[in-house]
Write a structure and sequence with these properties.
Distance between the termini: 50 Å
Structural class: alpha/beta
Strand order of the largest sheet: 3-2-4-5-1-6-7-8-9
Shape: globular
Largest sheet: 9 strands, mixed
Number of strands: 11
Helix content: 25-40%
Length: 250
């Protein structure tokens, strides 16, 4: 029994070393964050969202761009819970800082840097990813090459800072040296009958690529400060014989 346990421990350590070489955090630090992604965690190697790595988000349209920034803000709320600081760089800021409060983030804890060119944004992101004092770095840009993305991934291997590369309105979608690739689409919010306003934000989250993991698609809602996995579609239907107040969602 001791010999079998010893072999299992050796295999576990080897797997952790391989994942670390491929850009994933290993050890207890990778499990200290609970992003509330529920069943989606099974898609990630080790069963947890990879921190200390660079993630690519692709937004081909303005609606997906806004939805993606919202979803990223939800992830940042977990990374920054312990008074963390995030740097957000872009070449034309489209994010309204006050909206971050909806995700539990005080705007003054985000350092916004506005630049003119993608090359400047890349340089700032690379330097920021080397700063161990930051909880995360977000960069919005249109064009990036594989070699440029490789430098970003190398930067986080020592600092273990999590990077979010928001690739918006891309002229071309080339392979990058990121650990994952995401596409976020907005979904209609659920509005309770008879009440004004809009419901909580909802997204269709597609994980196109995840190194050593399993891609897939999920639906989430941001409610009461956390992600909530949606297990039923959002179209309201009324079965014959049911009064309006007993309408369910199926």
């Amino acid at each position: 029994m001791k010999e079998l346990a010893g072999k299992k421990e050796i295999i576990k350590q080897l797997k952790e070393k391989i994942l670390a070489m491929e850009g994933f955090s290993s050890g207890p630090d990778s499990h200290q964050f609970d992003f509330g992604l529920g069943p989606m965690n099974a898609a990630f190697p080790g069963g947890t969202f990879p921190v200390g790595a660079v993630h690519e988000f692709i937004s081909p349209t303005q609606t997906s761009f806004s939805a993606t920034n919202g979803f990223i803000s939800g992830l940042l709320s977990t990374l920054m819970k312990q008074d963390g600081i995030c740097l957000w760089v872009s070449s034309g800021r489209r994010l309204f800082p006050s909206t971050l409060k909806f995700f539990g983030i005080e705007p003054h804890r985000i350092i916004f840097i506005d630049v003119r060119r993608d090359k400047d944004a890349l340089w700032v992101m690379e330097q920021a990813l080397k700063c161990k004092s930051l909880a995360a770095v977000v960069a919005e840009l249109r064009d990036i090459s594989f070699a440029e993305s490789r430098r970003l991934q190398l930067a986080v291997e020592d600092s273990r800072v999590t990077g979010f590369l928001h690739h918006y309105f891309p002229r071309k979608e080339n392979t990058l040296a990121t650990v994952s690739r995401w596409r976020i689409k907005p979904l209609p919010s659920l509005v309770i009958d008879g009440l004004p306003g809009v419901g909580f934000p909802r997204w269709e989250v597609e994980l196109e690529k995840i190194r050593n993991g399993q891609p897939g698609s999920w639906q989430f809602e941001w409610k009461n400060g956390v992600f909530r996995h949606i297990t039923v579609p959002m179209r309201a239907v009324s079965e014959p014989g049911l009064p309006r107040k007993e309408r369910h969602y199926a």
